[in-house]
Design a protein that fits this description.
alpha/beta; Aspartate Aminotransferase, domain 2; Aspartate Aminotransferase, domain 1; binds D-serine; 16 helices; 2 domains; globular
Length: 417
């Protein structure tokens, strides 16, 4: 930070403040993580100076002697880690990666089927405000009201009725195992391309803590910065040459220009880290922690969508607690517990003032916290939410914040401390 502090002390101080905030907070947002110092270092390198439109061995700019090796390394590591034949590490992030899937296999107006956003899907799976919902014809599946789980019978019925060209499985608020095999069988039956969006669970898949879509999905899309613990970026993977060729053309020149080479390098580092035995331990601990936290919350009367979790994520419907998701998330944040408010299935409230909060354990597990800490976090959440419901939370928030600070001071933040 030396030169940054000299050149732009104002910005340097803001970055320091964010470092302190991240260190002092129990980060429970399930799509976030702490990357290692090595990943951070790779991100902040001279690779940002280089244009490399094209792919290794076939570029539109000279001077690719090193960049080609870096991108090839990232691709080979992705292929080895996930056990796929092809990987593209150039998508700028999850949404552009998913757009590339449309560009590769659909024409404007074609039908796409994905999980509705309020049920746990993603904007780019055909939600109305997204280009994917405006420029394509979306069909949406959800979860059963009684179980909070995806209704595979409904998925099949909708697929048979609408004959989508593309089916997305995966999403942003799904606390249960995704049945890739069942989705693949439906996609085959209707002749659709199956895209598994594993952005949330990529690290769990890599670490053997969630079944893999490989061998079931035609295309696998993922961000690299969630459970996979890499830089902000994305990857597309496929087994067949035909699918891979279509995806590559869609990413470049279809949608993007030059890849962000500093990100590619950091992805390569993250993939190397995820291939180590410690990462398997990490992935399984993420799930064990989420289960412990879910159990604590359920025991304290919290209404968990689907009753619990199989992965890193817990979706809480706060209706029975008498508070909305937004005020709860704001109060928890002031107590040092960072969550995000979220719609829950069949939510009668609006997305910007929904009934739920979404939490997860990737970040706290990266700090080395275990089940005992999860139970403590569950207790704090209960204290804050209960006090908020009674309309008298200030004292509790202040006390919990002090206790949270004590806890976070015992668990170093990877990349920062
Ligand atoms: N914004 C991501 C998440 O929080 O799940 C999805 O794109």
């Amino acid at each position: 930070m030396g030169s940054l502090a000299n050149v732009d002390p104002q910005l340097a101080e803001l970055i320091k403040a964010e470092e302190r905030r991240q260190a002092d907070t129990v980060k429970l947002i399930p799509s976030e993580n702490y990357v290692s110092k090595a990943v951070l270092e790779a991100t902040g390198t001279v690779l940002t100076n280089k244009y490399s439109e094209g792919y290794p061995g076939k570029r539109y700019y000279e001077g690719q002697q090193v960049i080609d090796q870096i991108e090839t390394l990232a691709v080979e590591r992705a292929k080895a880690l996930f056990g796929v034949n092809h990987a593209n590490v150039q998508p700028y992030s999850g949404s552009p990666a998913n757009l590339a899937v449309y560009m590769a296999f659909l024409q404007p107006g074609d039908t796409v089927m994905g999980m509705g956003l309020p049920f746990g899907g993603h904007l780019t799976h055909g939600w109305s405000v997204s280009a994917t919902g405006k420029w394509f014809t979306p069909v949406r599946y959800g979860v059963r009201r009684d179980t909070g789980r995806i209704d595979m019978d409904e998925v099949r019925e909708l697929a048979l009725q609408h004959r989508p060209k593309l089916i997305f499985c995966g999403g942003t608020a799904i606390p249960r195992i995704i049945d890739f095999e069942a989705f693949a069988s439906i996609a085959r039956e209707v002749g659709a391309v199956l895209a598994a969006d594993i952005a949330h669970i990529a690290g769990l898949v890599a670490g053997g803590a969630h079944p893999s879509p490989v061998g079931h999905a035609d295309v696998i899309s993922t961000t690299t910065h969630k459970t996979l613990r890499g830089p902000r970026g994305a990857m597309l993977m496929a087994d067949s040459d035909e699918h891979a060729t279509a995806l590559n053309k869609a990413v470049f020149p279809g949608l993007q220009g030059g890849p962000h080479n500093h990100t590619t390098a950091a992805i390569a580092v993250a993939l190397h880290e995820a291939a180590q035995p410690e990462f398997r331990t990490y992935a399984h601990q993420v799930v064990a922690n989420a289960k412990a936290l879910a159990e604590e919350l359920a025991g304290r009367g919290f209404d968990l969508v689907s009753g619990g979790t199989d992965n890193h994520l817990i979706l809480i419907d706060l209706t029975s607690k008498g508070v909305g998701g937004k005020p709860a998330a704001q109060a928890l944040d002031r107590a040092g517990l960072e969550t995000n408010y979220n719609t829950v299935p069949f939510d009668p409230r609006k997305p910007f003032d929904p009934s739920g909060i979404r939490i997860g354990t990737p970040s706290v597990t990266s700090r080395g916290m275990g089940e005992a800490e999860m139970r403590q976090i569950g207790a704090w959440m209960d204290e804050v939410v209960t006090a908020l419901a009674k309309g008298d939370a200030e004292e509790v928030i202040a006390r919990v914040h002090r206790e949270v600070s004590e806890l976070t001071s015992q668990f170093p933040t990877p990349g920062l401390s």
